[in-house]
Amino acid sequence: MDKLAPLFDPTSDRTAFEQAWVYFSEAAIELEQTLGVPIAMWKDLTMAQFGIQISYGIETVMPNPRTLFYRVTDDAANILVGQASKSPDAFDAAKMIAFANVWNGAPMPASLRAFAARLLNGDESRPKQQGGGITNLFLRWQIYSACQMAHDLFGLDITRQDYDEPNSAADLMSQLADEFGHPYSFNTIRDWFKHKNYTKFRRRCALASGFMTEKYLIDLGVIKQPR
Q1: Which of 38, 45, 54, 156 is deepest in the core (most CB within 10 A)?
Q2: What share of the chain is helix, strand, coil (3-state, %, to 5)?
Q3: Residue 158's Cα: distance from chain center in Å?
Q4: Which pLDDT score, from 0 to 100, does residue 183 have?
Q5: Domain that holds residue 96
Q6: How far apart (Å, rounded) are the C-alpha atoms in residues 222 and 172?
Q7: What distances in angstroms separate CA 95 from CA 98, 111, 149, 209, one per listed residue?
Q8: How far apart are CA 144 and CA 125, in angstroms?
Q9: Do residues 97 and 147 both lie within one domain?
């Protein structure tokens, strides 16, 4: 364990594991409120839906139960379409918005209209999937990336040997996931990090994390949006 981890408080009566439990419990509830989707339903949430829900400049509009479209700013559309050329998640989000708005006759920024036209003409292809599948991907990515954060922020080892005390990041996320109604065993989460069968899943998670980091930096104006 790294006692110099940035959020670990060595003066606290709580262990690093206990401090991380509080932090990630609160983070999950905060994200639940941001998304407007109960944690119990996260297994049904796609990466594209997640990206749309947290994006600045994209608003979901549902005037009645049978009509749903999106109100998108020019800047948000430019960012999304730019990322759609390299991220399958961004591509799916852009496609979802374009199809919903075309179907309901809702306006779209020029870049999204051009994207929709390329889709219809067969000139826009989904970037190659980097493994990981689709089923429960959002939930699994959240658990996987939270393990990495627990290591970076609180100094927890990501995994452990079978004979060690159950205080690794994988133990933490297994227990938290079960607490929120999504049972994933320590062995399963450990395999996501260690087993060769999950190499493509790890690549997929890395791509999703990179997409979200780039999007966050663009939203903050730290890096320039694609044109």
Answers
A1: 156
A2: 60, 5, 35
A3: 19
A4: 93
A5: 47-120
A6: 33
A7: 5, 12, 31, 20
A8: 28
A9: no
